[in-house]
Amino acid sequence: MKALKLLPVAAALLFSFNSYSKVTLPAIISNGMVLQQQSNAALWGKAKSGAKLTIITSWNQKTYTANAAKDGSWRLSVQTPKAGGPFKITFNDGEKLVLDDILIGEVWLCSGQSNMEMQVKGYSNQPILHSNDILTEAEEPGVRLFRVERNMSRTPLTELNAKWEHTNSETVGQFSAVGYQFARMLQQRLKVPVGIIQSAFGGTVIEAWMNKKAFEGVTDFKIPADTAKIIKNEPFVLFNAMINPIAGFNIKGALWYQGENNRFNAGTYDKKMEAMVKEWRSIWGCGEFPFYYVQLAPNVYKDGKDQVPVIYESQARAMSLIPNSGMVVSVDAGSQTTIHPPDKTIIAKRLLYWALARTYGKKGVSYMGPVYKALKVEGAKAIVSFDEIPAGLTAYDKPLISFEVAGADKVFYPATAVISGKTVVVQSNDVKTPVAVRYAFKDRSEGNLYNVEGLPAAPFRTDNW
């Protein structure tokens, strides 16, 4: 992990605001940005104290006015058209500031810890599948990148060291492999510009991404004294430094990939996700935007024993707690040697399926795999049925793996599992009368049960032991 570099305030201001005019803007509102199409897009910044500010949008030549407060702050919204560009926005409080190369399209935020932060060029000795192919095709004028650098603060910040960038092999190589590929595939499918905002920090807990209001009621995570040295896993510090400065910039939706560092308090993870998303939506002020997230992948963790299944369940429960949300399953796309699985393409595709089907209304696009429904016992056979299997089940001609069965003694044994119609029949010679079935319910257990549409079943158990 690279050493954290905290910028002095003066340097941050240099990067965050255009200093050539009295009108100053946050980094997220700058040349090359993408504004959400057909929305009331928020703009804000500073101007001369008490000045009357005029803003002209080139796509319709409409003039907006705002009165700067005593401290120079101002805020307003502009109406955006259907996708297109490039356009200009002119700001004037007596001195002009012109932003150009602005596109109108779809804007998404991607956030979380290292599996979201993992860049297209990979980590040391940890590759990204197809990375060189991705980089050879990186120059796409319809995709723009905004990468928030790592930072942390105990108080909410408004400045950033970041800028909107065009895609090329260098900028894409440093960007989130999940986020970029999602944006590129979305741009290809919708044929409109896409802006993707990355705000991710490896090795972090969800509590650090929550604001104080979202954290209310949390009892299993302590806030350190202000006199202690700041660390990235304090509550609020990443929200303050990496989310607050961009909150309010209109987005279509958010992508989330985090949870490895919450294995130790996994039972409350769903409630924290619910609280965090509720507050993000409230602060952004652009509606109940979709929130799509990735369930953790299997891995052999050296510091724990089968803690991941608990967070599997928390992540699955979060879908019923968070309106307009959806979970990508990755039980078939993990790694036994690294916490950072190399196949980020399949994860980006599965996030894309949720977005296309649920956000953009693309008919016929499947987005969910088989979901455990019920267990029926017939003699020595445990028969498992599922929802979300309109055309049935498959393991692509391979034997099903990672099924276990237990009797009344609550001892689980490896089991054979066979697809039978739209059910899976599970049995073991060691269990004469089954009571419970588990599937991929260990840290390291991979899964290979899919619906015919090609989407995997999430790990599950039929018991509550």
UniProtKB/TrEMBL annotation:
Keywords: Hydrolase. It comes from the Bacteria. The keyword Hydrolase applies. Its EC number is 3.1.1.53. This is Sialate O-acetylesterase. It comes from Pedobacter africanus.
